[in-house]
Amino acid sequence: MGVPLRMLAAGWNELESEIGRWRDSGRAVEFWWRDDDAARPNRALERLLALAQKSAIPLALAVIPLQAEPALFAELPSGTDVLQHGSDHSNRAAPGEKKTEFPQADPSEAALVRLSESRERLAKLAGESLLEVLAPPWNRIPPAIVACLASCGIRGLSRYGARRSALAAPGVLEINAHVDIVDWKGGRAFVGAEQALLQATRHLAARREGRADATEPTGWLTHHACHDENAWAFLAELFERFRPEQGVRWKTARELFGAGLPAGR
Fold first, then answer.
1. Which three-class secondary structure state does DSSP give residue 60?
2. Are strands 156-157 and 130-134 parallel, antiparallel or unpaired?
3. Does residue 184 have a pLDDT over 60?
4. Centroid of chain to Cα 248
5. For 114-148, what is each residue's pLDDT tens digit?
6. Quick check: helix, strand or coil at residue 82?
7. What domains lie within the chain, and their CATH numbers?
8. Cβ-Cβ contacts under 8 Å for 161 (sequence gap 6 or more)
9. How far is CA 163 from its chain centroid?
10. How many other C-beta atoms lie within 10 A of the C-beta of residue 66?
11. What DSSP character marks residue 239?
12. What would the pLDDT profile of 53-98 be if each residue is shown by its tens digit?
């Protein structure tokens, strides 16, 4: 049984009303878009890139370095920002630990070497599209590794949820995603328009009311390989509804994190 239309309309209306509160106070809402788990060309990725181009919404693509195929980068439209999605996206979690590429028990030195070496490969493939930003798989990474990210050339970090501070560690800017449109506990289906819109409205309200960092843009997180038709339809409507004329600015990852050093240096 589907969600009643009146509930869907309410979700859109509530988000539009929250954006209106920002606009009335003379502030512009800033969104950004991150998609995870890219590695190779496929139909889902082609659809993602086509949507980004058609809607003119900037895309930050988190690519798995050791799974990435050269053909992936031949298809990326100009202006697509590439983030480093861990090293190999292997789950190394200990029994009872949540999925992670970077378990608490593993030595930080080994993880940093793995990140640095995989980054070199990704830089050769992605060239200037690559930003010095890490989006860790499953959005998990121990504080001991975060503290040393700058030593292996990583100047930005993107996880999930409202950040505690603009700097995750000295020299490492953190800008997260806050709206996940995939229901990971519900068969990896679309979480539903009502829930996705509620997540966005709550984060914007928390920023406006001082309960979250007002300077952190609200990030939309997608996983192209998991999208069903409802997810694709939602994204198309989201991008159509919220444009600069509605008081919304979609920022590029490059704008948010800064260009930093040239890729591969």
1. strand
2. parallel
3. yes
4. 18
5. 999 999 999 999 999 999 999 999 999 999 999 99
6. strand
7. 28-254 (3.20.20.370)
8. 139, 176, 178
9. 13
10. 15
11. H
12. 999 999 999 999 999 999 999 989 999 999 999 999 999 999 989 9
CB 209 within 8 A of CB 251: no
Cα separation, 178 vs 139, whole angstroms:
11
Q: Which residues contact 85 (CB under 8 A, 6 or more apart)?
A: 36, 37, 38, 62, 63, 64, 65, 135, 136, 137
173 close to 157: Cβ distance less than 8 angstroms: yes
CA 47 to each of CA 9, 58, 206: distance values in angstroms, whole numbers, following the listed order:
26, 15, 33
Beta strands in 154-234 (DSSP E): 156-157, 167-169, 172-174, 179-180, 182-183, 189-190, 218-222
3-state helix, strand, coil in the chain (%, to 5): 40, 20, 40
Half-sphere exposure of 115 (CA within 13 A, CB side): 30
Find the DSSP H helices in 191-261. Answer: 193-208, 229-241, 253-257
